[in-house]
Amino acid sequence: MRLPPALKRYTQWIGFTAVLIPLLVLLALQYRSLARLDQTATLVHKAGLNNFLEAVTTDVDYFYRTNAERVLDLPAAVFTQDQLAKAAFHFKKKGVEGVKRLFVERFQNEDDHPLYFNPSCATFQPPLWSPELRAVYVASSPWRILANKGGRLERVRLMVEEKDPDYRILLYPITDDSSRVVGVAGMVLDEDYFRDHVLPEAVKQSLATFDSSDMEPIVSVADAKGRIVYTNGPLPGRRMEVQKPFSLVFTDWTIGLASRHTTPAVVARRNFLLNVGLSAALATVLVGGVLLALRTASREMKLSRMKNEFVSNVSHELRTPLASIRVFAEFLRLGRVDGPEKAREYGEYIETESRRLTQLVNNILDFASIESGRKTYHFERCDVREVVCGTLKTFGVRLRQSGFDIVLQGAETPLPPARIDAGAIAQSLSNLLDNAVKYSNLKSANGKTDITVSLRRDGDWIVISVIDQGIGIPRDEQRKIFDRFHRVSTGLVHDVKGSGLGLSIVRHIVDAHRGRVTVESRPGEGSTFSIHLPIDSPNAPDTQPLAAPAEARERPSEA
Asked: How far apart are CA 204 and CA 233, in angstroms?
């Protein structure tokens, strides 16, 4: 089943879309998967860091909680039966580190006051007034009020008082058998000991159980004013990755964690960006490959159409002179000749058409040689005027038969010699004249049937121009007309049959002569084709193979 031409035109783009859409879907799914993986890796990494901080704070809490409960949990008889000596013996026996002061306070009478433990003599003494004593009063006052009201405490637990950050206090309420508060035992914490001993030991124990080989964590602790009071190494320039306040004591202090080197989260982000970049690059290469394949296929299809048109046009071009030769040959064979003049006329027609046929065949053969890189030219010092005049003389019969007059300008002016292949230049001029005849015939009957050939010198160049009064060439087509098989898409021009090789061969010949060919044209005003040939150089070689210049080889592929 053959596809309609309109559908054939879009078949390649349909195929490209069929490849592009699944590719975009795959890229979107891959990006989504990589984004989730990156997010998961970041969350897992942060969870691990938070677990590390949780372990440090738990060790700190355990240290203070166990010490407080071990030391401060006194029997109620110490307060109700005035057995403070037993409490002093208990404090001395248990011992405790990391505290500035141990104290007790009974709630039996209104004149009871806090008593400080003196470890040197293992006794309790009333303290002198100080900011520390005031902090102790503030911490114990809620329990004194509760005791005075006869309130009950169903559950005894360790209490923390940090209203004054200079004096952080742990309190343990003491209750009797009826759950009434009879007193409190407490301790004032030593901040220096916490910073110099408790923190380093907690961090050390947590690092021992933490897989830190990939990040080498830096732990830092900041006080309530943001001052760094502890760190286990030089701080990195970036912010802490995770931070957490302490939960039992020093709750206005925060502990943070950062990596000494690149963190797994950053590595995961880099890997994510790398994978996305590679996927995008592969997709770009794939799309580029598809586009290149489509472009190549489009060129091949276009070239195939051009070749088909070429075969059709060449067939027509061959058929026309052959038909004329056959007709006039039959006239001669059948004796339909009135006299020598008529026979000479028929002979001129046969000669003209045979030359036309020879020119077409030569164009095809020359094009094949050019394409294969086997075309060679034989350069000799020649008078360009003689080559031009000889070509016009040979071409004159056809011009007269077609109703054209030819005007040669500049033939009387001497020109310097040029090193050229006379036959190749004659072929180029013949091709230009052939185009002028073809496209001037499309001109409406306005009496303008002259074709002008101009010879002149322009600096170091000899210029041969063919000027017609035909239909002209649009500006956007003027660069393409020298490409092989290219034919102007204008309707009137397209009605003229031709091989599409003439101007391409002209350009190859002129390029081989180290010259250039130019065109000046406007639709409806005719065209001027000019061949620029360099004046003879004594050092130029006599023979030069045509290895088509890069520009000449690339242009046809652009058509």
From this structure: 13
**How does DSSP assign 32-84, residue by residue?**
HHHHHHHHHHHHHHHHHHHHHHHHHHHHHHHHHHHHHHHHH---THHHHTT-H
DSSP reduced 3-state for 115: strand
Quote the tokens at residue 414. Answer: 């001497």
Distances (CA, A) of 230 to 82, 195, 278, 411: 44, 7, 44, 103
Mean pLDDT rounded to a whole number for the chain? 79
**pLDDT attached to residue 493:** 46
Q: Among all chains, which residue has been given the structure tokens 């210049």?
A: 549
* Rounded Cα distance, 193 and 199, in Å: 9
Q: Are 159 and 142 in contact (CB under 8 A)?
A: no
CA angle 145, 146, 147 (to 5 degrees): 90
CA distance 168 to 550: 89
Give CA–CA dist 524/493, Å, rounded. 12
CB atoms within 10 A of CB 243: 16
Measured CA to CA, the distance from residue 352 to residue 553 in angstroms comes to 33
For residue 210 the two structure tokens come to 């933490």
Query: What's the predicted TM-score (pTM) here?
Result: 0.48
Question: Do the beta carbons of residue 54 and residue 244 sit within 8 Å?
Answer: yes
Instruction: Indicate whether 68 pLDDT > 80.
Output: yes
Tokens 């306005």: give the residue. 446
Is the CB of residue 115 less than 8 Å from the CB of residue 125? yes
Residue found under tokens 């500049």: 410
Q: In the structure encoding, which two tokens stand for residue 264, read together?
A: 């797994």
The answer on pLDDT for 481 being more than 90 is no
| CA atoms within 13 A of residue 272's CA, in its CB half-sphere | 18
Q: Tokens 């890229």, residue?
A: 27
- Cα separation, 391 vs 394, in Å, equals 5
pLDDT digits 0-9 by tens, 324-366:
787 778 777 777 777 777 777 777 778 777 776 776 677 667 6
Residues 455 and 408: their CA atoms lie apart, in Å, by: 8
Q: Report the distance separating Cα 227 and Cα 221, nearest Å.
A: 8
Residues 190, 100: contact at Cβ < 8 Å? yes
